[in-house]
Amino acid sequence: MRVGLGVTGGIAAYKAAELLRLLQDRGLDVQVVMSAGARNFVTPLTFAALSGHKVISQVFGEGEQEPNVESAIEHIAVAQAIDALVIAPATANVIAKIAHGIADDFLTTLVLATKAPIIIAPAMNVDMWENAATQRNVEVLRTRGFKVIEPEEGYLACGMTGAGRLASVNTIAQAVFETLQVRDDLKGETILVTAGPTEEALDPVRYLTNRSSGKMGYALAEASQRRGAKVLLVSGPTRLQAPSGISVEFVRTTAEMAEAVFRHVDQATVVLMAAAVVDFAPTKVQTEKIKKQGGLLTVTLKPTLDILAEVARRRKPHQIIVGFAAETGQVLENAAAKLREKQLDLTVANDVTQPGAGFDSDTNIVTLVFPDGRTKPFEKMSKLDVAHLILNAVVELRSKLTPAVRE
Ligand code: CTP
Asked: Is 158 a catalytic residue?
């Protein structure tokens, strides 16, 4: 994950170097953007050396360099690449510019161009902070959804005492982690995730499959990684890019998926079976392409191996096993029946006929079904948010295992 770190011209600019380190410690890639004023306090070289990326300040390239197309559209590329933007320290001036939509340097242009969440940590003289104009501008940012980390009280560089000191870099880093849902509540866990569809061949050119995109499973893998788990992802064919830093094993058929899952499952403490496994395969795969001259074609299908049922059957006491139930009717009844029959710890039920739920959608509408009969329905939300809800339930289930079993 990538974070933009905006540094503006205040004495506290040097503290941004420490903040950068804290962000990096949690695996975040940091792109530093400095205002011209910030360069009077810290040199770009410091941030470039620490972050491993060149520091950006101006919209049309730096120094003597001729403006070029790359530099002219760089703010858009950075805006799209970052998952969050944190501005620390943020001066009264930059806060005022942002509140009014002014974009006269790279940082303020980036603020307008990005859809990523923005965190602002102001630092300034107490009178400037308490000035009605600054307070009004900060309020404007809050109502627009910016997270503002209040400055702290204390001795200020100008010799005065009062509110205006940059909040501690730990507090600021924590706000970034919360925004990005970077936690470590799954540290020490090994999570096996299945994703995407499988394919069952009919002849050398045709196969049976389903509409699964793999998005739910990939979101689970990504969310598990962000929360500190080691992730093993077994994926059927999808058009998705493999989440960075996660080892993915690609498979096509149900038998291949089963083989990969059984090879990894003993290491896993949590199994999340999000794959839409093809339930039926032709009894015979034709070696030659089936010709259409024959008219009506009858294909006999046989059930494939239920990987989830088999994983649950071989389960170790410390494993948490989560299944999915993609349904088109009687959703909760069917999900509860699957949970009972396959002896699962949790089933994630969804009605794939609802708009905004199921296969190719970026969102999902799910209900968590627990073995004690509890159900937790949720509103429509992104698949990444659904993934975090599922993982919250996993953390809760793991905490109920006795320590001896958990190990
Ligand atoms: N599953 C599996 N292997 C299969 C079929 C399903 O591991 N051959 C897993 C899926 O990954 C999912 C769960 O079982 O976690 C439910 O899959 P689903 O197809 O909805 O249910 P089935 O148990 O196959 O029942 P049915 O198709 O009758 O609804």
From this structure: yes
64: pLDDT strictly greater than 60: no
CA 48 to chain centre: 26
Cis amide prior to 355 (ω within 30 degrees): no
- Work out which ligand 1 atom sits closest to the CA atom of 334: 29
CATH level 3 topology of 190-406? Rossmann fold (3.40.50)
- Looking at per-residue pLDDT, the higher value among 10 and 65 belongs to 10
Residue 184: the pLDDT is 85
pLDDT at 63: 62
Contact 257, 277 (CB under 8 A): yes
**What's the pLDDT score for residue 243?**
78
In the chain, list all ranges with CATH 3.40.50.1950. 2-179
- Residues with CB under 6 Å of ligand 1 are 194, 254, 273, 275, 277, 279, 304-308, 323-326, 338
Helices (H) and strands (E) in the chain, counts: 14, 21
378, with CB counted inside 10 A (0-12, 13-18, 19+), is: middle
Q: What percent of the chain has pLDDT over 70?
A: 96
Span 160-182, pLDDT tens digits: 888 899 999 999 999 999 999 88
Question: Which tokens is 315 given?
Answer: 């389960």
**Apex 375 CA angle, 370 and 379, nearest 5:** 125
Query: How remote is the CA of residue 226 from the centroid of ligand 1, in Å?
Result: 27
Would residue 379 be called left, alpha or beta, if left means φ above 0 and alpha means ψ between -120 and 50 degrees? beta
* pLDDT tens digit sequence for 221-231: 999 988 889 99
Q: For position 358, what pLDDT does the model report?
A: 78
- Delimiting residues of CATH 3.40.50.10300 domain(s) in the chain: 190-406
Query: What class does CATH assign to 2-179?
Result: alpha beta
Nearest 5°: CA angle at 249, between 244 and 253?
Answer: 135
Q: Is the dihedral of CA 95, 97, 103, 104 positive or negative?
A: negative
At residue 20's C-alpha, the angle toward residues 85 and 31, to 5°, is 50
The C-alpha atoms of residue 149 and residue 157 are separated, in whole angstroms, by 19
In whole angstroms, give the CA distance from residue 232 to residue 225: 10
Residues 6+ apart with CB under 8 A from 30: 2, 3, 4, 5, 20, 23, 24, 51, 53
